[in-house]
TrEMBL record:
The gene is ku. It comes from the Bacteria. Belongs to the prokaryotic Ku family. This is Non-homologous end joining protein Ku. Residues 227-249, 262-286 are annotated as: Disordered.
Length: 286
């Protein structure tokens, strides 16, 4: 299946705009993942949003809570958050250029590939790529993805361009309190010479293909072995949406009764006021 761009827009360098598409540079399915299974029944373990003493709750009953003091929350409706989300900007303007080694590695977050949208954009795309190569600079700008504005760095990568989102300064933890106990004292020169010689002896170009995820390889081998073994324990499950047994059912039943009584009371009051039957309330979709 062909990769789908997660963002389409343009890179702007002064008065030059280059149509580009952005693709994730990492594969989310590359790592093995498991699902929790309840062994006695063979059913998948599901996670529900539960309120203590109430049980499972509907999504339309949930608001966002900001803890402004210990155990005190300011309630904010999700619609209010949606209203202030930035519209997905279609332009990534490179407003500054810095030396490629000037950005500390701790600032880098996620990598994305940038490709020209069409053949007409390729000439200008190559010019920006080669100019960054020649100057050994990184372009800095901001891009809006999924309603959030990210700081981003654009740099050459093979025949194309790589965009890496960056953490903002206030997102990083101050390291000084953690390193304050490490004394800034002189080290033994003989030990330093040995360590330096060892580093120089093992120095060389970085080759990512030389490193393998041994844990994942062993896990795949285990799965392959157990799959081919007919005696390996297996379960077949047909997941349903029925309420789980136990205390939550009691809590849920109590909550439903309370909701029903509340709805009936509101309906009677409305009927008495208007003199006609009230229309049933449509439930919001999750």
């Amino acid at each position: 299946m062909a990769a789908r761009p997660i963002w389409k827009g343009q890179i702007r360098l002064s008065l030059v705009s280059i149509p580009v598409e952005m693709y994730s540079a990492t594969r989310s399915g590359a790592r093995i993942s498991f699902r929790q299974i309840h062994e006695p029944t063979g059913k998948p373990v599901r996670y529900q949003k539960i309120v203590q003493g109430v049980g499972p709750v509907d999504a339309d009953e949930i608001m966002k809570g900001f803890e402004y003091e210990k155990d005190k929350y300011l309630l904010i409706d999700p619609d209010e958050v949606d209203e202030i989300k930035l519209e997905t900007k279609k332009t990534l303007e490179l407003v500054q250029f810095v030396d490629a080694c000037e950005i500390p590695p701790i600032y880098f977050d996620k990598p994305y590939y940038l490709t020209p949208s069409d053949e007409l954009a390729e000439d200008a795309y190559r010019v920006v790529r080669d100019a960054l190569r020649e100057t050994k600079m990184v372009g800095i700008g901001q891009v809006t993805l999924r309603g959030k504005e990210y700081l981003a760095a654009v740099k050459p990568c093979g025949d194309g361009l790589l965009l890496e989102t960056l953490h903002y300064e206030d997102e990083l933890r101050d390291a000084e309190p953690l390193f304050s106990s490490v004394e800034d004292a002189a080290v033994d020169q003989d030990l330093l010479d040995v360590a330096t010689s060892l580093i120089e002896r093992k120095s060389g170009p970085f080759d990512a293909s030389a490193y393998k995820d041994n844990y994942s390889d062993a896990l795949r081998a285990l799965i392959k072995k157990k799959t081919s073994n007919k005696s390996s324990k297996r379960v077949e499950t047909d997941e349903d949406n029925s309420a789980p047994a136990g205390d939550n059912v009691v809590d849920l039943m109590a909550a439903l009764k309370q909701s029903l009584e509340k709805a009936d009371g509101a309906k009677k009051a409305k009927t008495a006021k208007s003199g006609k039957a009230a229309a049933p309330r449509r439930k919001k979709s999750a």
